[in-house]
Amino acid sequence: MIRVDGRKPGQLRPVRITKNYIKHAEGSVLIEAGDTRVICTATVEERVPPFLKGGGKGWVTAEYGMLPRATGMRNSREAARGKIGGRTHEIQRLIGRSLRSVIDLSALGERTVLLDCDVIQADGGTRTASITGAFVALAEALSKLKAEGLIRRVPLTDYIAAISVGRLGGEILLDLCYEEDSAAEVDMNIVMTGAGRFVEVQGTGEEATFTRQEMNDMIELAAQGIQQLVAFQKEALGAYGSGEEDGNETGPGDE
Predict the structure, then answer these.
(1) What pLDDT score was predicted for residue 207?
(2) Would you give the end-to-end CA distance of the chain in angstroms?
(3) Burial readout 48-64 (b: 16 or more C-beta within 10 A, e: otherwise)
(4) CA dist 71 to 62, 115, 120, 195, 224, Å?
(5) Binning pLDDT at 50, 70 and 90, where does residue 241 land?
(6) pTM
(7) How far apart are CA 115 and CA 193, in angstroms?
(8) What pLDDT was estimated at residue 6?
């Protein structure tokens, strides 16, 4: 099957991660996955939510938004509508959960890292690109905290990335663009660690059903795609990604 953008069924869209994209943020990246582009920034705050105060643990959370002309038609800013939509809430919680799964919050101290994921152009997979890019921004911010002597070590336990997969015309496809996603009979979003452990599996039949074998096939294809994304993350993070940052003998997932 030749796809709408010429890819093979199990092929990722072209991926590029550009670090230090925003001057003032403690960590920032522009992640590009095909025509989807997301700016992810990490901000460190020397405080934690009230429910964690005095407990010695930190927090990682996320906010997500889409520019009005990120899509084919202009969408009103949620601030102008006076409320955040349900989709935005769902994606913010997903990003936060995903990142917290690979960090030792007790080693962070009583500080918060806030990840802002702003979609500047959307062509499918904005939530998965946000997770993949936000991890790199988070790692950069934590590396700066360590370099400044504010934490003893970078408290990441593994890499984490996310990808979409689905069934279209009876074929299992990796990394759906918008045209494919909108027409898919089944679509899934998979979040996994570099070691291959699951954080989230979201799967839906769009007026269709799918078999256990098809689900297994989609998960297997997603796992292959996530390993490729983790390789892009390691490349973007440079020495830190290879476990050599600031004399560290280990990188995420190697401790």
Answers:
(1) 83
(2) 42
(3) beeeeeeeebbbbbbbb
(4) 22, 22, 9, 34, 29
(5) very low
(6) 0.92
(7) 18
(8) 93
